[in-house]
Amino acid sequence: MTHCYQEIVPSQDPKFAVRYPMVLRALSQGNRPTLRTVPCSRNTVRLWLRRYQQQGLAGLKERSRAAHHPPQNPPQPVGAPA
Description:
Strand content: under 5%
Structural class: mainly alpha
Order of helices and strands: HHHH
Number of strands: 0
């Protein structure tokens, strides 16, 4: 995948700035040489490489960690009958 300069530079996310070169190196040189230069686990490199291959640059952006569904059984107030 090739991307134009304007797609890459406007990103202000510092994590994106680490992920993109890491993924490009993994694509060109493989995972093992990438692991020697990036302080992260093999699974992390695989994760970001897979997301990049499936979604392109959008896959390298931070995802929300918020719950997608509300809890099914909300906690009961203290002193309420069970």
